[in-house]
Amino acid sequence: MAPENYYLFADDCLIVTSGENPDTSTKSMQKSIEEASNWYGKNCLVLNSAKTDDMTMSNTSNMKAPDSKFDILSFKQSFKIKYLGVILDYQLNFKPHTKKKLSKSFIRLLLIFRETANIHKISCSMVCWAHTF
């Protein structure tokens, strides 16, 4: 088990493999999942395939991900996953994460505006204009 491929935090586990092509990275992932499953079993833990995602990352936009069915478990194929509060997408451009954070920020800004509009005399059009940047 290569330590640089396994990232553990509380009850979250992230397994990262790489390869020259999707087939070699899938074989590497299969081996890593077997090792992780054995470790979980020895420590009286269970991998929950219903809560497990498989995501193939690539800088090629038209790459087809290999089948997510491994010998031990079957995972759902995802184009984005949330890990430790960060939304990772298959191209690692962070657009879904940024969009989510901006949307939350805008909602909070509107709530602040609603509470302080009468005090500071700020117009709603000014707040919406600020959101477009």
What does this structure look like?
The chain has 133 residues and is of the alpha+beta class. It folds into 2 domains: 89 residues, no CATH class; 36 residues. Helices cover 41% and strands 15% of the residues. It has a two-stranded antiparallel sheet with strand order 1-2. Strands 3-4 form a two-stranded parallel ribbon. A two-stranded antiparallel ribbon has the order 5-6. The radius of gyration is 21 Å and the shape is elongated.
Features:
3 helices, two-stranded antiparallel sheet, 15% strand, 6 strands, alpha+beta, 2 domains, two-stranded parallel sheet, 133 residues
Please write out the topology:
Blueprint: E1 6-9, E2 12-15, H1 22-42, E3 53-54, E4 76-77, E5 80-83, E6 86-89, H2 95-120, H3 124-131
Summary of the model, kept short:
The protein is an alpha+beta fold. The protein is built from three helices and six strands.
User: How many domains?
Assistant: 2
Averaged pLDDT: 75
Termini separation comes to 46 Å
Strand order of the largest sheet: 1-2
- Percent of residues in beta strands: 15-25%
